[in-house]
Amino acid sequence: MSDALDRSEPALSVPGRVLFLFLYPLLVGVVMMVSGFFAFLGLLYEDASFAALFLLVMAVLIGGGSVLRAWGAHRRGVVVRPWEGAVVSAVALTAATVGACFQAVVGVAWSWSMPVVWCVGLSVVGEAACAWSAGRSWWWLSLVAVLGVAAVGVGAVWWADAVG
C-alpha cells in the first residue's frame, strides 16, 4: 500500500463542506450575538462576569471547532496538512469576534445580526482562499486574505464613526 495521499478524493464531503462553510460560522455568530447581548448588559450594570463568560464561550467554540475540523481532515487522511483549514477558520472567527465587538463598542450601524454577518463573511473569505491555495504551500495567503478583509471592515467602521 502506498504512503502517498489520494488527492482524487475530496477532503470533506459536500455536507461537511457546507457544515464548516456556513453552518458552523452561523452557529458561532448566533452564540456571539446572544452571549454578547448578556455581556454588554452585564457591563452596563458594572458586572464583568458575563463578559468573561463571553470570552470563555467564544474560545471554547472557536478552539473546539478548529480541533474537530483538523481531526476530521486527519482521520480522512486525504489532506496533506489537515491543520491549515482549521487555523484559517480559527483566525477568521477570532477576527470576526474582534470586528463585531469593535463595531458594537463604537456603535456604528449596529444591529444584533452583525456578528453573524462578520462570522459568515470572514469564514467564506477564508474558505475561498484555502480552496484557491489548495495543493500549494501558500496557505498563509488565506490568513492574509482573512486579516485583510477584517482590517478593511474595522477600518470602515472606524471611518463611519469619524464621519458620523
Write the layout of secondary structure elements.
Elements: H1 14-44, H2 49-76, H3 83-106, H4 114-132, H5 140-163
Give a quick set of tags describing it.
single chain, 164 residues, 0% strand, disordered N terminus
Radius of gyration, rounded? Answer: 17 Å
Structural class based on helices, strands and sheet pairing: mainly alpha
What portion of residues belong to β-strands? under 5%
Percent of residues in helices comes to over 70%
Tell me about the biggest sheet? none
State the shape: globular
Tally of individual helices: 5
Mean pLDDT: 82
Q: Total number of β-strand segments?
A: 0
Low-confidence stretches: 1-9
Q: Ends: how far apart?
A: 65 Å
User: What are the secondary-structure elements, in order, as H or E?
Assistant: HHHHH
Descriptive account of the structure:
The protein is mainly alpha-helical and 164 residues long. Helices cover 77% and strands 0% of the residues. The protein contains five helices and no strands. It has helices at 14-44, 49-76, 83-106, 114-132, 140-163. Helix 2 (49-76) packs antiparallel against helix 3, helix 3 runs antiparallel to helix 4 (114-132) and helix 4 (114-132) runs antiparallel to helix 5 (140-163). It is globular. The chain starts with 13 loop residues before the first helix and ends with a helix. The relative contact order is 0.14.
